[in-house]
Amino acid sequence: MTRWSSFVVARPKLVLAATVLLVLLGGAWGSGVFDRLSLGGYTDPGSESAGVERLIEGTFGRLTPDLAVTYHARPGSTIDDLGPEVAAHLAQIDPGMLASTPLSYWSAPPQAKEFLRSTDGTEGLVVLSLSGDENTRIAAYHDLEPLLVIDGTDAEFSGFSAAANAFNEVSESDLLRAEAVSFPLLLLLLLVIFGGLVGAAVPLCVGGLAILGALGALRVISYFTEVSAFSVNIASLVGLGMSIDYGLFVVTRFREELRSGAHTDDAVRRTLATAGRTVGFSALLLVCGFVGMLVFPQAIVRSFAYGGMAAIGIAAVLSLSALPAALALLGPRINSLTWRPGVVERGEDRAHRFWGGVAARVMRRPVPIATAIVAGLLVLAAPLAGASLGDLDHTGLPATHPLRLAVDDLATDFPLANNGATLILQGSDGKAPPPAATAELFRATAAVDGVQRVVPVGATDTFVAIRAIFDNADRTTGAMATAAALRDLRPPDGTEKMLGGLNALTADGLDAMAARLPWMIGIMVAVTFVLMLLAFRSVVLPLKAIAMATLSLAASFGVLTWIFEDGHGAEFLGVTPGPLPATMVVLIIAVVFGLSTDYEIFLMSRMVEAHDKGASTEEAVRIGTAHTGRIVTAAAALLIVVTGAFTLSELTMMRFIGLGMIVALLIDATVIRMMLVPALVKLMGEANWWAPGFLARKAPTPGSPEDPKPTPQQQIPIQS
């Protein structure tokens, strides 16, 4: 870092211009990623149910419906009168978009008409199975919808393709609204925090550049693997948040060095040697943490990781190159354009005194304070014991959304029009099962609770396929229970059974998430321990950081479970209680764990620095908390604004993320970081700094950038 800081100081204009130019060019090229992003990625391609879908599609053609259209009879006429118009509109569809001939009430054989006519006889149903992969089938909805609208009659669209498009469209519009609300508030908060326009603008500019750079990185990744459209949303959120975090830390340290009397060049060197090193470790830690999300088979979850890693990497590079170069050029002008002279210095002095006083008071009574906080957090975490994971379904849309109404009407008016489940029966010798075994499976399937009817799909010389029609609408609690019962069904002797269909795909996806989640958490914990061990040269501090992050997550998810699954306050928030959405749970775990350890690094780096200079444990805690309390709480407040705007969304999953981040940040940045951590460090005393001999810290060389001289501003008085 010393050589790099010298290069930045010697050629700040070159570093700034080259970095910004590269990011702008990468962002311009990366804007083409939007044409390459996937709208799918929700299923586990390696699951049993996905294998059944491929087998059925390869043998009989795609049979799983992707789009359902309900037509209502016009006043004064019957549903049969719509037959010619429905046929004419279906004839307009490009045959290449269809996997098979559309199944329609008006053209279906007599035995199938009852499935496609409403219980009151006033509605008819058209079901379409589309060709192509999941992304192609979802994208086809925009072309098909206008072709299937008939003048003078109401048409309701439902099915997986329509639902995926509904979620994508609502989330996109809600994100634009959230950004329109959060950006002005961010600028206002940054003005208050930095006390001046120049200081406030610097982290915001870095955040904008980080988002542009992440687009270029995502486009590169898209040439090698499937990247979901949601990756851009994650890149925007994480890129802006981490850029502000790193900008706060670097700019605050630079100002501190200037106040100590250091020349601008020396201030930049010392800032990079201290805050820059911390930012580098933080970014490496967060990127490695997001790597844990790559263990999941669903492309949408892996795309969360791609977006997060790209944004964090670019934000860190900018914070260690363009930002210090800009500081070298600005020098003391970083404090310019303030509304009052001296507001910056007075604000930092007040923050130092306040947070130093908080740490001092906590350390006077560490046992009762730590006990009370841990007990309170465990109480908040208690509802987590009854939590369960679920998938996104139509109930996550606003109550008045057309698709949600269409799905509810379909379940009520067409009780037999569901995907149910597809069962494959094979002989153990690889041949088709004997007729007696097939008949036995028919009877056993029909006897399962929740199965309305069993119909044949087809047979080959290697397998037999049958379909079970359920009593309940697809992906509801009842349908998932029926699918689970069919999976547990014992096949006839000498045969093997496989289960497919939409409900089985959903169940397999959730099972894969639950099975891989411990691996993700294990990777994050291992990486955190190793990197913090190397950064702080202490065994105890990484273990404490992991424990604090775990406690923060448990309390946060306890609150989310109490609201979103148990239903307390759900009506006020306008959400339908149900299992926690698995994909969003994974995302929040990754982001909150990363932010928790990020704040821990900011806080502990100053404590370790003070202790290495000879301060006692108690004095190191007080100095570290005083110097970083304002940074950590300000960073959390800014992220609360960014993610809190998600609660304005009408989607349950967006409100889940927004509220989850608000709760987690409030708990972590205040109660845990500023109170519980100082209490625990005080209690553990010199044990905090223990490490094996080969990891023992070496004192910095006197006069080096790593050894800034203590100054009056760095001697934090205790506020009684």
TrEMBL record:
Its main location: membrane. Residues 699-720 are annotated as: Disordered. Pfam families: MMPL. GO terms for cellular component: plasma membrane. InterPro entries: MMPL_dom, Mycobact_MmpL. It is a multi-pass membrane protein. SUPFAM superfamilies: Multidrug efflux transporter AcrB transmembrane domain (SSF82866). The keyword ATP-binding does not apply. The chain crosses the membrane at residues 180-198, 230-251, 279-300, 306-330, 369-389, 517-536, 543-564, 584-603, 631-648, 654-676. Residues 104-369, 479-692 form the Membrane transport protein MMPL domain. It comes from the Bacteria. It is found in: Cell membrane. Keywords: Cell membrane, Membrane, Transmembrane, Transmembrane helix. Belongs to the resistance-nodulation-cell division (RND) (TC 2.A.6) family. MmpL subfamily. This is Membrane transport protein MMPL domain-containing protein. The lineage of its organism: Bacteria, Bacillati, Actinomycetota, Actinomycetes, Mycobacteriales.
